Amino acid sequence: MLKEVIATRYIAPLREGGSLPGLVEADDLGTYVMKFTGAGQGRKTLVAEVVCGGLARRLGLRVPGLVTIALDPVLGLGEPDQEVQELLKSSGGLNLGMDFLSRALGFDSLAFGVSREEAGRVVWFDALVNNVDRSWRNPNLLVRQGELWLIDHGATMIWHHNWPGAQASAAKPYDASDHALAPFGPDVAGAAAELAPRVTEELLAEVTAEIPDEWLTDEPGFESPDELRRAYAEPLLARAAVIHERIKGAQ
Ligand SMILES: Nc1ncnc2c1ncn2[C@@H]1O[C@H](COP(=O)(O)OP(=O)(O)O)[C@@H](O)[C@H]1O
Ligand SMILES: [Mg+2]
């Protein structure tokens, strides 16, 4: 289970991408980047963050730690910004939080070098989860004290938007030609040799167990949250074995 905290103060919106995550303070005095159940694609985005964040961390990639944040919509009442107020009001219950990386800078490929090995691990991982949101236009990478951090895994696993077609969708190749780290000559084969054997059924069960039940209920075609957890694990297990041969544009 992810640690659960309670939001005590809304600090500010982070207006970079489209989903309007917010900076909040919680009852453990931590500062978190909060992603709201009431935003855009709602809870599926949050599920994607939990699955990808948990998997990346277990594979040794740098990702911010995750928590769930309970939100009382009353917190939105004092917000002057209408859009923020609506978001808070529609996000009662459990939301996702990630450790705020203070003093991190946005990744700039001209200012920061990445080794072939590290680029390979990131590209291979993004191919595995089918991340379409790490292009040079919008890298969703942060740099802090000379280290690269991966953020924003909401736009991954496109197959979870259409479960009946999931198998076919997950068999598709990954186009890395626009990937933010494509210019660094990613060693995808090396990354696959190192990481693919670690993506086991057990590991995926551990990762998907961290998805809160309340984001998995009422999914058409599924009887229980655990059945849906297995549906998340399956395409990832299948892709781990083959995806390095189906990455286009990175070598
Ligand atoms: N854990 C974090 N620590 C510091 N800054 C963050 C963190 N997560 C996100 N940000 C900042 O907020 C911006 C938006 O967050 P992101 O997760 O990319 O959401 P979206 O693109 O959907 O709005 C990022 O580009 C980054 O500048
Ligand atoms: Mg983003």
UniProtKB/TrEMBL annotation:
Q: Which InterPro entries match?
A: HipA_2 (IPR046748)
Q: Tell me the ranges covered by the HipA-like kinase domain, including all copies.
A: 12-240
Q: Would you tell me the protein name for this molecule? A: HipA-like kinase domain-containing protein
Q: Which organism is it from?
A: Streptomyces avermitilis
